[in-house]
Specification:
The chain is mainly beta. The chain contains no helices and eleven strands. About 0% of the residues lie in helices and about 50% in strands.
Length: about 130
Amino acid sequence: MAQRPVEPVVRRGESVEYESVDAADGLAKGVLVGPEDGAPNFAIRRFALAPGAEVPRHTNEVEHEQYVLSGEYVVGIEDEEHRVEAGDALLIPAGTVHWYRNDSDEEGAFLCAVPNGDDEIQLLEE
């Protein structure tokens, strides 16, 4: 079966719509490029983590590759906490317990690349 050719896409920053993430107060997500744009394998998302925001402990069925764009915040991975800042990169394997906490006075922002397809998020009890 012949695959549909993938067309190049350029999306301007002002065209990206951000929405609040239900599982966390103070977290917003915008899809920069994804399946709706014809991306066959991966989606790139930008997250903004407001000052004081916390994302609860959870797992995802898919891996995450992340790149910190701005700010400084804490990423919990399994039993360790890591303070990250602009320029840092992370790999969070599928099924890994992780969470976020921005205890600074500035917004944190990061890019997150994930494989396309279903990604069940499992919130964990504290």
